Amino acid sequence: MAAEGLWPLAAAPPEALRLLGGARRAWSSGGPSWGTALLEALVDGVRAGRLDGRLWAGPSGEAIALALWVPGTPAGRTVTVVLDEGFRAAAPLAEFVARLGREPGAPALLALGEPVPGLPPQLQADALRPLGFRRALRLDYRFPATAPLPPAPPPGTGIRRMTTADAPALTRLWRAGYADDPIERALARHAADPADDAAHEVALLLGGELGPWWDDASFVVPDPAKPGELLAGTVVNDHAGPLLTQVIVAPSARRRGLARAVVAASVAAVRARGPEPLRLVVTLSNERAVALYEALGFRPVPDTLGGYWFAPAAFLPGEGPLGPPRR
Fold first, then answer.
1. Which residue, of 96, 197, 309, 318, has the fewest CB within 10 Å?
2. Domain map of the chain by residue range?
3. Which letter, b or e, does each residue of 55-65 get, where b requires 16 or more Cβ atoms within 10 Å of its Cβ?
4. Which residues of the chain fall short of a pLDDT of 50?
5. Entry pTM
6. Do the domains 5-131 and 142-303 sit in the same CATH topology, yes or no?
7. Tell me, which fold does domain 5-131 have in CATH?
């Protein structure tokens, strides 16, 4: 790279690998538990040509920052950013992100992963908040293998095992259940039209793209007043072990104990399969969900903390990056 500015990843893959090596050293002690696996996957992706990205060349022509993303998402880019050791500060991150956001013809910038290797979270906040980004911290919870099972759902709840025939109703439930939750919708952004994200998310989960779907541990509550519609549901996938990927309740059915009932059913079904504990990832701003999972017996896994900074483009028109959290 001979000139200062943004360059495509293909212009200098060795520079990308050099920066990823520096990120690995930054996370060799004290990084998140998932950090090493993420960086190794990025290295493999760069070497195999599976990733797109941009390098920021400094005045000397050497790369000082790297952004990587998986191509093929019509909605835009969710990027992992790596900064060279001498540039791990708020000002270089802010400038790099601003350049990515105004690159002519590039897909919209939707989100950045958190944390950036070697950059304290406060400095990431100092860089991104003035640009209108909104933070969503997420944490793994695990149901201990030795913990007693939650109480079984009471009779008459109407819970049954999910089937592939439930996909259309589950799509409608997903759309309704997250209608007031901009962060959860932003996490699922994929389609050019956000209205299509629900169908993509359901197809991804039930189709096994995230990992094999465990239909025997996924449950729904049909709406007795509206045949073909659902009041609540859970989805479990095998993603490095059993993962509770979705817990959805229709707005009209909240505060009736349905979330507790379907989660308890999934926990019991996973326990019946074997000793590996069920895991879930919760957005910490959703305090109601956190309280429910802890009350059921799930316990946090502290070294899994991470998340995203969402750009204004990740939200629906009129919602804004500082829109209200889920009620």
1. 318
2. 5-131, 142-303
3. bbbbeeeebbb
4. 321-327
5. 0.91
6. yes
7. Aminopeptidase (3.40.630)
